[in-house]
Amino acid sequence: MPERVAILGMGLIGGSIALGLKERTSVEVIGFDHADQNLQLAESLGAIDKGTTQLNQAVEGVDFIIIALPVTLIKHTILELSALSLSSNCIVTDVGSTKAEIVQTGKVLIEQGVTFIGGHPMAGSHQSGMQAAQSLLFENAYYVLTPEVETSMQAIQRLGGLLERATLAKLVLMEPSAHDRVVGAISHLPHVIAAGLVNQVGKYNEENEWFHLLAAGGFRDLTRIGASDPTMWRDILLTNHQALIPLLDDWIKQMVHFRTAIQEKNADQIEELFTRSRELRRQLPEKKRKGILAPFFECVVDICDQPGEIAYLTKLLGQQKINIKNICILENREYTPGVLRLSFQSQQDVIQAVTYLRHSGYTVYMDDE
């Protein structure tokens, strides 16, 4: 009899894990969601064997429970599960991007003899919902597990083996608070900075509309994550406040260094700050490795300013079966050469597009060249 996995939440993350389970394992997948339409879509896509809006029905007799819900709902759901009769060999995990508070809440299950292991697949997408789910969303990304010290290695290996097969991700074990500090620095803090910068420039724009009119490639690229879901990020920041406050203090110190150097017109210090930044930036992993911030695959193309040019270019790529996800005409090119920004679904698509467009005589630019 195949093992049974209940996935609670049929959104982007839950749906993508479900698709991976059905494609690469022999488990039976039960989907839980409050919205019938999400369950129907998941079933039509082959992501689940059956779905239900009743939590007790979803988890009855299952071997694994994956809570794929927003962080505040994860804690609430753990408490709901503690009131149900779960199988003695059941392992419960989650996909939340903060871990300390969730793992602390998970102790209520551990005290009842149920194994709880915190989890965080560190990949995402600009899109959301079951309709955006894909079985390879987590391929080559890191998948962090944060087991308690007393968790048996057998349980960790059981869950890890299942997740590795389903997601094709690279499993990493971390202590919950260490996870929250790392993710706070590389994901949560950048979102705060982006939102702050967008709000600051937006305030200036109320008095002078040129701030938005001249906002070109550099500003847009730096602040693209400033358009993220407000409710989701409210909850993430509130559940990771212990890690974020020291990180914000360190960020303020960094800005004071820049302010002092600029105010004192200290050319050497300004150059040193940017030199160190450039060197550290070049040490980051290759762009092709998936990370916690949703990747974007773009190129910029020079085209003639005449009727039909954009239509001709898109037709060329269409004939090669290369799908363009987004097109942006760059009216201000202070930092970026080219005039047409093309976005694609994958790195393979952008490489194929660049290769073909250059072969067709176009001048094409990529950030990492």
UniProtKB/TrEMBL annotation:
Family matches, as SUPFAM superfamilies: 6-phosphogluconate dehydrogenase C-terminal domain-like, ACT-like, NAD(P)-binding Rossmann-fold domains
Keywords carried by this UniProt record: Amino-acid biosynthesis, Aromatic amino acid biosynthesis, NAD, Oxidoreductase, Tyrosine biosynthesis
Record domain Prephenate/arogenate dehydrogenase: where: 3-292
Documented EC number(s): 1.3.1.12
Catalytic reaction(s) noted: prephenate + NAD(+) = 3-(4-hydroxyphenyl)pyruvate + CO2 + NADH
InterPro entries membership: 6-PGluconate_DH-like_C_sf (IPR008927), ACT-like_dom_sf (IPR045865), NAD(P)-bd_dom_sf (IPR036291), PDH_C (IPR046825), PDH_N (IPR046826), Preph/Arog_dehydrog (IPR050812), Prephen_DH (IPR003099)
One BP term from GO: tyrosine biosynthetic process
Pathway info: Amino-acid biosynthesis; L-tyrosine biosynthesis; (4-hydroxyphenyl)pyruvate from prephenate (NAD(+) route): step 1/1
Gene3D superfamilies xrefs: 6-phosphogluconate dehydrogenase C-terminal like domain, NAD(P)-binding Rossmann-like Domain, VC0802-like
One of the record's GO molecular function terms: NAD+ binding
Pfam families according to UniProt: PDH_C (PF20463), PDH_N (PF02153)
Family: Belongs to the prephenate/arogenate dehydrogenase family.
Name the UniProt record assigns to this protein: Prephenate dehydrogenase
